[in-house]
Amino acid sequence: MAKIRIYQLAKELGMTNEELLELLDQMGVAYKSHASTLSEEDAEAVRELVKEQRGLQEKLAEEERRKSLPRRPPVVVIMGHVDHGKTTLLDYLRKSRIAEKEAGGITQHVGAFEVKTPGGTVVFIDTPGHEAFTTIRQRGAKVADIAVIVIAADDGIMPQTEEAIAHAKAAGAKLIFAINKIDLPQADPEKVKRQLMERGFVPEEYGGDAIVIPISAKTGQGVQDLLEMILLLAELEDYRADPNAEPRGVILESRLDKQAGVIANMLVQEGTFHVGDYVVAGEVFGRIRALTDADGNQRKEAGPGSAVQVLGFQELPHAGDVVEWVPDLEAAKEIAEERKEERRAREEAEKERRPRTMADLLRAMQEEGKKEVNLILRADTQGSLEAIQHILARESTEDVKINLLLAQVGAPTESDVLLAQTANAAILAFGVNPPGSVKKKAEEKGVLLKTFRIIYDLIDEVRNMVKGQKEPKYKEEVLGRAEVRAVFRLPTGKQVAGCMVTQGRIPRNAEVRVLRKGQEIWKGRIASLKRFKEDVREVAQGYECGMGLEGFDDFQEGDIIEAFQMVEVPA
Ligand SMILES: Nc1nc2c(ncn2[C@@H]2O[C@H](COP(=O)(O)OP(=O)(O)OP(=O)(O)O)[C@@H](O)[C@H]2O)c(=O)[nH]1
């Protein structure tokens, strides 16, 4: 076994000898002095321990740093089924903030608005619906911390309610359920709660952790409770942002105005933007000419949590583009141009690499190291949907989880494709055909969409996906062997073995083991592989070579060096 001296290990780990000796005392490892050698196991244990301690210290320091930052207001999006009252709720909230201020104030649409309460400020995204929300998220920005899912008490959970929940969850937003229209005589909030429970959202009053608030967006009843709940959740989640960090924001909307030019509404997420700053948003750059807030005030600067209208972009940025501060015009132009190029290259590459088959999708998932299969399920009837769900529930294994993001009756929609793209999911449809436009969109976005006529074909497909997600198994494959014929020592003290390859081949990047009298005495990597002083990538059977190993300097004539690699065993 290769041994290491204490002072060598201290140097490797960037510690003083005293520090390392103290650590060894704590670990109960005996030594004489800092020149004593440690066994490989002890040295490895020290490395692990130091790594762990450093990781912990870094985490604590990071948490400490975060705690010293000021809090920022939570950003909330309102989602739900058509006509369940999203717009009415936004109107009510908007009005409540205007009423608070002196009468006659001119308001400006900046894509989000603040509601100030004695308990704190809440920022609401000013457009309802999950389509806009998903488009924003697709560009990589996370905008909303919390999604308020509005459910009309006279109607209950409807298909778009489920979609909204799926989208919000995929975005990592916290959920709050607002049961709306409780002023109506036919309102049945209890029914809605039951429906929520059937979907695994157990209200707090029944011992669960789903936040459910009855409201009337029309009369305002319960809206105060909703705001308080949002602030309570925000406090728990402890949202913070650094006003002095490098500024970053996200575009909520943009439009072209005949007089003003490009108008972009931006939510600031980190740092503080100033008039005069150079910025890049996606592939578009500009210099901030003016910042206007929701009250119509011209601002010189905008910090975390503020929504502002920005003038100064050269072209229209997209909703969801991340706005970054850059030092000067040159950088701004260069970055925007670089991104355009990158996109073109990506589009080209994507054309060739669209996951058209299950195997492609699996490969993509594996590359990301995921151990779950995300699915969107569409079926012709409630009966078949339930049957499929029932069977699928049994297919989830401990190793691989099946996540049903959405299971609904009806043909797949474009919004499903967006959800699938952002959540890296496959859309499986049973007995329903997606419209051509949806197929096209799926193809464009590289989303796997398949239709089935037989339930078991669909299940088989999912089984294959699950199988593909299991930890791959490896076995060792011996590539070649070399015999040590002579041993040299370099002036540096490093040993080099003069070898003859007696079998197979020895590749420079293979793993190797040293065998002495048939016993493995060392395992590791090749440090150098040469033929007549030339570095080579590989040496084949019947040829001589010089080989040095990483951390092994104990060769004896007659040792065998065996090269091997680990290969995946097909499931
Ligand atoms: N009685 C009563 N009616 C409400 C309430 N909230 C909304 N409504 C009514 O329900 C209808 C639909 O409300 P909207 O706010 O437009 O619904 P929405 O969810 O924004 O609908 P879309 O924008 O079409 O998706 C309107 O006629 C509202 O006046 C409420 O709390 N009580």
Automatic annotation (TrEMBL):
GTP binds at residues 80-87, 126-130, 180-183. It is found in: Cytoplasm. GO terms for cellular component: cytosol. Keywords: Cytoplasm, GTP-binding, Initiation factor, Nucleotide-binding, Protein biosynthesis. Residues 74-222 are annotated as: G-domain. CDD domains: IF2_eIF5B, IF2_mtIF2_II, mtIF2_IVc. Pfam families: EF-G_D2 (PF22042), GTP_EFTU (PF00009), GTP_EFTU_D2 (PF03144), IF-2 (PF11987), IF2_N (PF04760). Residues 71-239 form the Tr-type G domain. Signal peptide: none annotated. It comes from the Bacteria. GO terms for molecular function: GTP binding; GTPase activity; translation initiation factor activity. Its main location: cytoplasm. The keyword Nucleotide-binding applies. One of the essential components for the initiation of protein synthesis. Protects formylmethionyl-tRNA from spontaneous hydrolysis and promotes its binding to the 30S ribosomal subunits. Also involved in the hydrolysis of GTP during the formation of the 70S ribosomal complex. Belongs to the TRAFAC class translation factor GTPase superfamily. Classic translation factor GTPase family. IF-2 subfamily. This is Translation initiation factor IF-2. It comes from Thermus arciformis.
